[in-house]
Specification:
Strand order of the largest sheet of chain A: 1-2
Shape of chain A: flat
Distance between the termini of chain A: 29 Å
CATH class of the largest domain in chain A: Mainly Alpha
Strand content of chain A: under 5%
Largest sheet of chain B: none
Oligomer: heterodimer
Strand content of chain B: under 5%
Largest interface: A-B, 106 and 92 residues
Structural class of chain B: mainly alpha
CATH architecture of the largest domain in chain B: Orthogonal Bundle
CATH superfamily of the largest domain in chain A: MetI-like
Largest sheet of chain A: 2 strands, antiparallel
Number of strands of chain A: 2
Radius of gyration of chain B: 25 Å
Order of helices and strands of chain A: HHEEHHHHHHHHHHHH
Number of strands of chain B: 0
CATH superfamily of the largest domain in chain B: MetI-like
Helix content of chain A: over 70%
CATH topology of the largest domain in chain A: MetI-like fold
Helix content of chain B: over 70%
Number of domains of chain A: 2
Number of helices of chain B: 14
Number of domains of chain B: 2
Order of helices and strands of chain B: HHHHHHHHHHHHHH
Chain lengths: 299, 294
């Protein structure tokens, strides 16, 4: 790296440097105020008891101790969140890759299909929740009507049954998310040079072999990116929980994101909420690092 | 004979592909079609069995009810103000910073860039509580004194609603990636001709990076329009609610009234769908080219 002097001693370079700082200074200040300072504040609050009315009271590690060792609801929320991620991510990856392969061809009207698959992504999570509340409605919802008409199944309480609710939310989330990853995979597919496939064909490789030996390895960076981003977003799940189930029934859909909101803004336990948020951060960060390690090792 | 058979085969193959494509499209779009159908069905059709995809007659009574029983026009105004302002602010500051990170050489540039980019890894929930406190205790606003005590700060104001969308780090990243593809010679030539650094950005770079600015606008507008958690936390008066929050509250108040709820959902979803379909080409390209190449 070039030293400070390298820039400062030369008039032209100094001018460019100062203009550069001027241009980035709004972003730097904004990041400080909305990310770095809040993170520090949050870290401090996680060691306090604070309800916004009386001054924060230092309690040391008490919040962390309670959450990690004595908080059943946190454990439930963590399990639900992990379950959610474990179901959403693989389904999303398989389906989005399938869709990407499907739409990766230059035929008439393909843009129309790509747009159709992408529409759920553009829909807000609240709008999607409203639509799916209606679809999952036990008496007159579309899903039960179709199941009853074609398979003569009795009505199923998709969101009211504690053993089903989380899976119902997973289904909706996958529907909403595949389009986004499809576009990423599509970009990845189009970046694979065609001569690799030609060479494989000359060697007599079947389409399945081509997929295993060329497509999948070449798409590894995309998959890696999708897993990290997917972990970050599924571990923060909030909107659909708030709008569709409020964490119920029987806490079966309480996610960590929802629990943090509840602790902070329903019970005003800002300190405890901050501690949970930090634990969440460490988990996401750790999983991302593991993911990086795994992919470096394999690739 | 052989070539005709091959032609026939490939025709069947193409047809098969279209059938699969359409079937998937049907599944992906079914929820939207159901929403749209429910919003124009008369009430007696809504609970009909077997489910009717096409209404027996088209009625707009649900739309009327959704709009007369709530402050939706106001929610719309709020969302437009917030998402629109956020878009304009982002267009200027993200492009300015993105350009600097790509084309200007200065001390510690890449370190600063990585630090800023790293904030994308921070979960919203970590900064939520402090951001709420900062917004509530913003000095000299909403009855607060210099220390941020005494009033409600930026709570229930457009300023407060805008806080998390004013500057998108992802937007800076997008612009930087795009600027990196533009040759340095353009900037150098303009500098030799006597243009200042800001002139180069304003007169030369901005026109060249229009495609990424289109992507950025769609991205910022939809993010602000679709967000739920922040408006939920930062507003408590009905007149400051955004559309997403309004929709959720409407659902709470009219629990089993599916027709009006679907009508409201259609209306809330429309602006974003329209923005997307218009700018669709840019958007998809934008994700494809900048989302990955790190």
């Amino acid at each position: 790296m070039k030293t400070w002097r390298y820039y400062w001693r030369n008039g032209d370079r100094r001018h460019v440097m100062l203009m550069g700082y001027l241009f980035i200074c709004p972003v730097v200040i904004y990041s400080l105020v909305t990310a770095f300072v809040p993170m520090a504040v949050s870290f401090y609050l996680s060691f306090t008891r604070y309800n916004m009315l009386t001054p924060a009271k230092w309690v040391g590690l008490a919040n962390y101790r309670t959450i990690l060792f004595a908080d059943d609801l946190f454990r439930t929320a963590l399990r639900n969140t992990a379950q959610y991620a474990v179901e959403v991510l693989p389904a999303n990856i398989i389906l989005s890759l399938g869709l990407a392969v499907l739409v990766n061809r230059a035929i008439r009207g393909i843009t129309l299909f790509r747009t159709a698959y992408y529409l759920p992504v553009v829909t807000s999570i609240i709008a999607a929740s409203m639509i799916w509340l209606w679809i999952y409605q036990p008496d007159a919802g579309l899903l039960n009507l179709l199941l009853s008409r074609f398979f003569h199944l009795p009505p199923i309480d998709w969101l009211g049954n504690p053993r089903l609710a989380l899976h119902s939310l997973v289904l909706m989330r996958v529907w909403k998310g595949v389009g986004w990853n499809m576009v990423l995979y599509l970009a990845g597919l189009q970046g694979i040079p065609g001569y690799l496939y030609e060479a494989a064909k000359i060697d007599g490789a079947s389409p399945a072999q081509q997929f295993r030996a060329i497509t999948w390895p070449m798409l590894k960076p995309v998959t890696y990116y999708i897993i990290i981003m997917g972990l970050i977003s599924t571990f923060q799940t909030f909107g659909e929980i708030y709008a569709m189930t409020r964490g119920g029934p029987l806490d079966s859909t309480t996610t960590v994101g929802f629990l943090i909101y509840q602790r902070a803004f329903s019970y005003f336990e800002m300190g405890e909420a901050s501690a949970i948020a930090f634990i969440l951060f460490v988990i996401i960060f750790g999983l991302s690092l593991l993911n990086v390690k795994y992919f470096q090792y394999r690739g | 004979m052989n070539s005709r058979r091959r032609c026939y085969r490939s025709l069947v193959r193409i047809l098969g592909i279209y059938v699969v494509l359409s079937a998937v499209a049907l599944v992906m779009c079914a929820p939207f079609m159901w929403m749209l159908a429910s919003s124009v069905k008369p009430n007696e059709d809504i609970f009909a069995y077997p489910p009717a995809w096409l209404p027996s007659r088209i009625t707009f009574q649900h739309y009327e009810k959704a709009f007369s029983h709530s402050a939706f026009p106001r929610y719309f105004l709020n969302s437009f103000v917030v998402a629109g302002t956020a878009t304009i602010v982002n267009l200027f500051f993200c492009s300015l910073a993105g350009y600097a990170f790509a084309k200007l050489d200065f001390f510690a540039r890449d370190v600063i860039f990585m630090l800023i980019l790293g904030t994308m890894m921070i979960p919203v929930h970590v900064t939520l509580v402090p951001l709420f406190i900062i917004t509530k205790r913003f000095p000299f606003c909403g009855g607060n004194n210099a220390l941020g005590v005494g009033g409600t700060g930026l709570i229930n104001t457009y300023g407060g609603l805008l806080v998390p969308y004013l500057l998108s780090v992802f937007g800076v990243f997008m612009v930087r990636q795009f600027c990196a593809t533009i040759p340095d010679e353009l900037r150098e030539a303009a500098r030799i001709d006597g243009a200042g650094e800001f002139d180069v950005y304003w007169r030369i770079m901005l026109p060249l990076i229009k495609p990424v600015l289109a992507t950025l606008s769609i991205f910022v507008f939809t993010t602000a329009w679709d967000d739920f958690l922040w408006p939920l936390v930062i507003t408590n008066s009905d007149s400051m609610r955004t559309v997403q929050l309004g929709l959720q509250v409407f659902q709470m108040q009219h629990a089993a009234d599916w027709g009006p709820l679907m009508a409201a959902t259609v209306v809330v979803t429309m602006p974003v769908l329209v923005v997307f379909v218009i700018g669709q080409k840019h958007f998809v390209q934008g994700i494809a080219t900048t989302g990955l190449k790190g």
